[in-house]
Specification:
This protein is globular. It has helices at residues 2-14, 22-36, 76-88, 106-111, 132-141, 174-182, 220-227, 243-274, and strands spanning 40-45, 50-55, 65-69, 98-101, 146-155, 162-166, 203-206, 229-238. It has 8 helices and 8 strands; from the N terminus they run ααβββαβααββαβαβα. It has a single domain (2-274), classed as 3-Layer(aba) Sandwich (Aminopeptidase), CATH 3.40.630.10. An 8-stranded mixed beta sheet has the order 1-2-4-3-5-8-6-7, with helices on both faces. The chain is α/β, with parallel strands linked by helices. 39% of the residues lie in helices and 18% in strands. Helix 6 links the parallel strand 6 and strand 7.
Length: 275
């Protein structure tokens, strides 16, 4: 019943929102920043839009949560889910160790396009140094090594939620994320996802071979995995499902991820106290 109540609340809120309205999104984030005491800062400017991030004072160099959304503008559920999740947690947001990027591609969001205004796929250029907005973002990430990084995405071919998890830190968290989302959205049951065989329904877990990325470029998740994160996930919701359902699924994953990050942080403190 609790999940259904939360689902109805999300649907009600979405009916008032505009999922491709970047200026309205910025207004909502400003309200979150004001209510939570977490400063909202600009980090780059495109010809028409300013890009923002929020970093809590609770975030140190090690640990914590990284979340980004909207690197592909035709994938609005992650953008909406992140602001809705922040609004839900506004009174405790300052206490949470996190770095949040609300929307990495404002032009794409407004125009419902995967690419940016120059026809560039921002999720394929993290190995390059010629795009100021991505370079500024990388500079903000540079001092940190996160417990977990989440990239919120969508897939037009998706038949339910699925995720990519880099095979590195154990225990793996993918199963917990899928279980959390299952109450609000089906899990993708395809036997092949983007040419890969899922380890389990909805979970594509892989070791990273950099040579395979040479032909099409380094995505955000790989940049985080190589240099800045213990665990890295790309969460994919099915674009053809209802927006409120996709938003609820992303939020369920965010809630579970936060629970695991705080649990991990608590265990580290206990270990330090008794070590």
């Amino acid at each position: 019943m609790e999940n259904q109540s939360e689902f109805r609340k999300i649907r009600s809120e979405l009916s008032k929102q505009r999922s491709h309205d970047y200026r309205h999104l910025v207004q909502r984030w400003r309200a979150v920043a004001g209510a939570s005491g977490v400063r909202m800062r600009g980090y780059a400017t495109t010809p028409d839009y300013k890009l923002y991030y929020l970093k809590t004072k609770s975030l140190g160099a090690l640990g914590g949560l990284y979340v980004s959304a909207g690197i592909h503008g035709d994938e609005p559920a992650g953008v909406e889910a992140l602001i809705a999740w922040a609004e839900k947690n506004v009174h405790i947001l300052s206490e949470l160790p996190c770095l949040l990027f609300p929307c990495l591609n404002p032009w794409g969001l407004i125009n419902n396009r995967r690419m940016d205004q120059n026809g560039v796929d921002l999720n394929r250029i993290f190995h390059l140094k010629n795009l100021p907005s991505i370079e500024a973002m990388k500079q903000l990430i540079e001092p940190h090594h996160f417990t977990v990084s989440l990239m919120l995405h969508e897939d037009y071919d998706g038949q339910g939620l699925y995720l990519y998890e880099t095979e590195y830190a154990t225990p793996f968290w993918g199963e917990k994320f899928v279980k959390a989302a299952r109450s609000v959205i089906p899990i993708d049951s395809r036997t092949r996802i983007d040419g890969r065989k899922p380890l389990k329904p909805g979970i594509v877990r892989r070791k990273i071979n950099l040579k395979k990325f040479a032909s099409f470029g380094i995505p955000e998740a790989l940049h985080l995995h190589i240099q800045h994160s213990e665990r890295t996930f790309t969460i994919e919701t099915p674009s053809e499902f209802a927006l409120d359902q996709r938003v609820a699924a992303h939020m369920a994953v965010l809630d579970e991820c936060l629970r695991l990050v705080l649990k991990d942080q608590h265990q580290d403190h206990l270990t330090s106290a008794t070590g």
